[in-house]
Protein: Xaa-Pro aminopeptidase
Organism: Trichodesmium erythraeum
Amino acid sequence: MQIPTNHTYLSKTLRNRREKLAKLIDFPTILWSGSSSSRNFPANTFPFRPSSHFLYFAGLPIEDAAIRLEGGKLELFMDNLSPSNLLWHGEIPTRDRLAEIIGADAAFPIKELKDYAANAATIYVQNPTTKITQCQILNRDIFPSKKHQKIDLELTKAIISLRLSHDDMALTEIKQAAAVTVKAHKAGMAATKNAKFEANIRAAMESIIISHNMTCAYNSIVTVHGEVLHNGEYYHPLQTGDLLLADVGAETTLGWASDVTRTWPISGKFSPTQRDIYDVVLAAHDNCIAQLKPGVEYLDIHLLAAKTIAEGLVNLGILKGQPEQLVEMDAHALFFPHGVGHLLGLDVHDMEDLGDLAGYEIGRERSSRFGLSFLRLNRPLASGMLVTIEPGFYQVPAILNNTETRQKYQHIVNWEKLKHFSDVRGIRIEDDVLVTTKGAEILTKELPSNTDVIESLL
């Protein structure tokens, strides 16, 4: 475990966070970190990643631990490593030392947690073993179970309100992740000339992240099949005429994420059709970022992206009609089916373990419309919020070859014209944008998105 050099600043920030929480709730809270999961035999585990809610208040990725919060105070519950564990994993700070680093008011062995669990709220951990422990210690079901106590939901809403806007320490971490991510993407572009497979470019990008002692914030997407939105395969050969879509982001040792996508031509030059579609997506990207500021509805940003893409496809002869009407009938979603972005923070899709509670303003529900059902964020923007802006264009066979879809939009899509753009499987352009009091700050602006500049980097 890497301990921050300025842990006085860390403990001060953590104390400020829990004092803010204490102003929102009047009951104790217990948050578990979770434990590592075995891949195939007990000692061979996946890399440990603590619950982000634990990490927000505890600051460090401490495994098999819990914290109790009440009245602005923090108590740490964990066990010191046994001598046998020290043999394999080396020395780590003791319970008392970790408590000092994070500014805890007291520290106890984990077995004593049950003595402090009365009337405590919690948020469930994705790790199933830990979730069982949570129910056993609290002697009840936990949210989102229908039998959960009301305080779990109250706690969830309180933590959402805190994590929606980022404090200075969080932004420092996120900017570090963004800077490394920019370097990774530039390395991927530079490696393209001599690469033979997607895996070669993935290796070039992830090696930069690893060399900065960071990890990937999510499974990298590095593919010539950009029409598969979360493609996790890297074996396809790179051929002249292909576009490569790279969605790769770094995560700092304290868990803060970046999330960036660029699309570039394997040959080093966009074809005329690829450039045409790319410029449509880039226009949507730029238009959306220009409108970001406090008070603006993120739904309106998404609809602006949809309208811009619809208008661009009309100008290219792919769609027929008025852009506003095309968006109303969800015609844009034939090629841009997902939302324009999401919250970003400790999680790459921040707080989506809570369903739509974080992404959607109270009283709003997810739409069932084809063009809106995948919108991850629907609330007014506020200063300190960090969002992604990631419009795209995709030719997804499951959508475009669907019989009902083709019949519904048979007079809206110029299917013959669309064939001329067969060398565009998928294009996405994504940046991380901080909402400020004055508008927006692009944290990943050092990574070019203009076609001419990208070609020069290749």
